[in-house]
Design a protein that fits this description.
The complex is a heterodimer of chains A (about 325) and B (about 450). By secondary structure, chain A is mostly helical. Chain A is about 70% helix and about 5% strand. Chain A has helices at about 25-35, 50-80, 80-125, 135-145, 150-160, 165-200, 205-225, 235-250, 255-260, 265-300, 310-325, and strands at about 10, 15-20. Chain B folds into two domains: about 10-120 and about 255-365 and about 430-440, Rossmann fold; about 125-255, no CATH class. In chain B, about 35% of the residues lie in helices and about 15% in strands. Chain B contains 16 helices and twelve strands. Classes of the chains: A mainly alpha (about 325), B alpha/beta (about 450). Chains A and B meet through strand 1, strand 2, helix 1 and helix 4 of A and helix 14, strand 8, strand 9, strand 10 and strand 11 of B. Strand 2 of chain A pairs antiparallel with strand 10 of chain B.
Chain lengths: ~325, ~450
């Protein structure tokens, strides 16, 4: 029978060793391979709750409750209506604090989970890092996001993940799913940073600058979180700002600017635009950094490509300079 | 599965499980029962689709019951071995408890029936559509080409030399049938690993079929000299006896099996040993694809066809699973899935137009290899060779991203692994994607 088909592509298996030279294999090790997954330390600082703080808080709470009870009794003695009003007001305030505390706890857990997931991705990128546990990680991400119906597409994208996926593949899948949100957030940050910079550059009252920066940055962080469908409670927001400030506290404006422009070019610009505009540029670049950090915090996957265009700093400087000159 | 509210009847989901040549049916069913028994642990516990299932219990009352004990014994023995191959049909019944809200009217129990039957029998589906001359013509078209032409050149020449009009020699017919059965057995084993081995019951008789009672063989002269139309044979000639016995086999063995079991199936799992076929080479790959196309063909028939009515009455989900994915490194496991998809692309495309949910996936019922990462980051697999029983450390070849269109692909020296020691019934066996397979099959 004539056989004119081309030769087969031969894929060879390499046998390294047989017999006693090979490490033993048993089901227990396979179970361990499947389940061993070092839980990374959360990037967020651990909640500080030393015994002294706890004692003072408890004493304060007891004291407040006693005062409140005394006020209710006193009000009741004066007039039943006053007593009832004090009772209702106290209960309302107490309930409000409880609710706030619960929200803070939830938000804190969510942020902890996101940073822990990011840490796991980063750990897996290290040379020779084991590539097991991708499926578990994707399930954790899906579990984290599934309560939010707006993240359904992201959860759907994760449904195709299986154990053969590598961390890189999972990160790519998530990056792809975040694509639209990243673009919107980057545009927002650019717009907000330029506006803040121009406000500062044009502000006649330096004392108002702090309030202005805080207002714009808080609004920006809030909107970035909204783009990623993250709801942040008030204490969680405060925690986020704290963290952002902590991250940038030791970073000078120069370092931030170095991300986008050369130092010589920067000094030239500052000389050209003047001190006031220079302040505007500095604050705008701070804002870019804060927005960038907020973006990184809201995503379960660490950035592989710069989330905010590295040229954005240059664009901000150009925009502030042109606006302040005109 | 059909459920009527406010009825006390426990709904039953029937899943047919079959596979082509050494694909691991018995191992899969044993692993599935084991996973359902340990439903609160392992991968199934994390599967959100099955989160309502709280308890699984294997029932021994099915007749004929799948021999779960034998499967467990083989896998947990010292040294462990793979469960014996399926030789007849059997049923594994598992009762599942479901956690429902107090106000739910849906049942809190569900029974899963896994119908296990030899893949060789499934291939007999083709026969249902063929008369005897068509059977001879089809088999000739396979046997006239490599590798079958080389496996049994003498037998093929002998069959081609028989005059269908000549009086039959009963003893010689029986001998030829036995040689044909031996040829089929050789074809399906390594190094050939061919899939289209008909008639299927010549390989695995089952409890009630005795091939020697009504022997038949394909007569190739019939095809060589055919000029169209149904041939007429004198009584007691080779042609007449073979035609009569072929029709008896088709109508009284193959057809009742499908009529009896397929009309009640809700889902079908077809296991394929794609890696095994790749180890055997392009001929095995082509043969297996043709066999699968034949097996899945009835799903494309309309309801005016009896096979179409039979297959499409209830079956809504079909999973084609490439087994033994654990014999590859993680990157290649993903490629195995995409290779299986491109390998069956035509069939998948055809079924996508029908109301059938078809899922092609790569699985490992019981993981036999573990990954060893060296200090330099290189990965290899460690397992126990099935033939020698010795531990072996190997690096399987990197698979291509896509299946070559001409299927000219061959894997060399891939070891066949034995199950790992230390498996325990009280823990879900380590496997790959069993949870996903069950989620697909059991989803409401």
């Amino acid at each position: 029978m004539p056989n004119s088909s081309p030769p087969e592509q031969l894929l060879r298996t390499v046998i390294h060793a047989t017999g006693d030279e090979v490490p033993p294999i048993d089901a227990e090790q396979i179970y361990q391979d499947q389940t061993t997954e070092a839980e990374p330390e959360p990037l967020l600082p651990a909640a500080h709750n030393p015994w002294l703080t706890r004692l003072i808080t408890t004493a304060l709470l007891i004291w407040l409750i006693v005062i409140w009870a005394q006020a209710v009794v006193w009000g009741w003695a004066l007039n039943t209506l006053i007593g009832l009003t004090l009772l209702a007001a106290g209960s309302g305030i107490f309930g409000g604090f409880l609710w706030l505390g619960w929200q803070a706890r939830r938000a804190r857990h969510k942020l902890d989970a996101i940073t822990a997931i990011q840490a796991q991705f980063l750990k897996a990128k290290a040379p020779h890092a084991p590539q097991t546990g991708v499926l578990n990680l994707s399930r954790r991400i899906a579990q984290l996001l599934q309560k939010n119906p707006q993240q359904a597409a992201l959860v759907q994208a994760l449904s195709s993940v299986d154990e053969s996926w590598t961390y890189t593949e999972l990160a790519q899948q998530l990056e792809h799913s975040y694509g639209a949100q990243d673009r919107i957030a980057a545009k927002l940050i650019q717009r907000e940073a330029i506006r803040t910079g121009i406000f500062i550059a044009a502000s006649p009252y330096p004392l108002l600058d702090f309030l202005l920066v805080a207002w714009r940055n808080v609004a920006m962080v809030e909107r970035v979180a909204l783009i990623y469908h993250l709801k942040l409670s008030t204490p969680a927001r405060w925690h986020l700002y704290q963290m952002i400030l902590r991250n940038i506290a030791f970073t000078t404006v120069t370092e931030t600017v170095l991300d986008s422009v050369s130092q010589s070019w920067l000094s030239n610009v500052l000389l050209q635009v003047g001190v006031r505009a220079g302040q505007g540029v500095g604050v705008a670049l701070y804002s870019v950094r804060i927005g960038h950090q907020a973006m990184r915090l809201c995503r379960v996957v660490p950035e592989t490509q710069p989330l905010v265009d590295r040229n954005i700093g240059k664009m901000v400087i150009e925009a502030v300079r042109s606006k302040t000159h005109s | 599965m059909v459920y009527l509210p406010f009825t006390s009847k426990i709904p039953v989901t029937r899943i047919g499980i079959t596979g082509l040549s050494q694909a691991g049916k018995s191992t899969l069913i044993t692993a599935v029962i084991n996973h359902l028994e340990n439903i609160r642990r392992g991968a199934l516990a994390k599967q959100t689709t099955l989160s309502g299932l709280t308890h699984g219990h294997w029932l021994r009352d099915a007749t004929p019951a799948f021999d779960y004990d034998a499967g467990l014994h083989a896998l947990t023995n010292s040294p462990p071995s793979w469960p014996n191959s399926t030789t007849d049909w059997s049923i594994a019944r598992i009762e599942l408890s479901i956690d429902r809200p107090w106000y739910s009217t849906k049942p809190r129990r569900r029974i899963i029936e896994l119908l296990d039957y030899p893949g060789e029998w499934l291939l007999d589906l083709c026969l249902l559509e063929w008369d005897y001359p068509t059977f001879c013509a089809q088999v000739w078209s396979w046997c006239s080409q490599a590798p079958r032409a080389a496996i049994a050149a003498d037998l093929i020449q002998t069959l081609a030399a028989i005059d269908p009009q000549a009086p039959v020699d009963a003893a010689y017919l029986l001998e030829l049938q036995q040689r044909w059965a031996a040829f089929l057995a050789d074809s399906r084993l390594p190094p050939y690993q061919l899939s289209r081995n008909l008639p299927g019951r010549f390989l695995l008789n089952g409890a009630h079929y005795h091939p020697e009672h009504q022997p038949f063989i394909p007569l190739f002269a019939l095809n060589l000299s055919s000029g169209g139309g149904a041939p007429k044979f004198p009584a007691h000639s080779w042609g007449a006896v073979c035609t009569q016995n072929y029709l008896a086999y088709r109508d009284h063995e193959a057809k009742p099996f499908f009529s009896r079991h397929f009309q009640s199936l809700d889902a079908q799992v077809i296991l394929i040993d794609l890696l095994g076929a790749m180890t055997a080479g392009s001929a095995a790959l082509k043969d297996m694809r043709a066999a699968l196309e034949g097996v899945l063909q009835p799903f494309t028939y309309g309801t005016d066809h009896w096979l179409g009515r039979l297959f499409r009455r209830k079956i809504r989900r079909v999973a084609v699973c490439a087994t033994k994915m654990d014999h590859l490194l993680p990157d290649d496991q993903k490629r195995l899935q995409s290779l299986a998809e491109s390998y069956l692309y035509d069939t998948v495309q055809r079924l996508a137009a029908e109301s059938i949910e078809l899922k092609v996936m790569a699985i490992a019922a019981v993981q036999a290899a573990r990954i060893q990462t060296e200090a330099n980051g290189e990965q290899s697999l460690i397992g126990r060779d099935k033939r020698t029983g010795q531990a072996v450390q190997f690096t399987p070849p990197a698979l291509p991203q896509t299946m070559p269109h001409n299927l000219n692909l061959k894997i060399g020296d891939l070891p066949q692994l034995a199950p790992p020691p230390g498996l325990d019934r009280a823990h879900p066996f380590p496997g790959r994607r069993i949870d996903q397979l069950l989620a697909f099959l059991l989803a409401d």
